[in-house]
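Methods — Computational structure assignment.
A single polypeptide chain was analysed. Its primary sequence is given first, followed by the predicted tertiary structure written as structure tokens.
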Amino acid sequence: MAEKKKILIVDDEVALRRALCDSLNLMGEFSIFDAGDGEAALEIIRKEHPDLILLDISMPKMDGIEVARRMQAEKLSEKSKIMFLTNSTDIAQIATAVEVGSSDYLIKADWDIKDILKRVMEKLNTL
């Protein structure tokens, strides 16, 4: 039996984080981890080496862009793909997200959970 793909969900919005965790857990195909801030996320990334990270940009303690930069510096981004989930439509921020290693960028307000899950499946099928 193949090892389950690991997904890390990082968002300070507890309701969204729980909804994504619950939805992905129901699929039964993944090992799911979650964090409410960038510092906790980095600890999990270093330990678990997730295949895919759903990463919010605006968070306390450390924002998602800084998490991605530290992942690059520690060469952790070679093992984990990042999908930014954010409410920001700032073009400069989107450009920075792409620059620091995002494989996708979704504006939360434009998507519902089913759409996000579909994108997750698409990303994991390319790993």
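Note: The first helix runs from residue 14 to 27.
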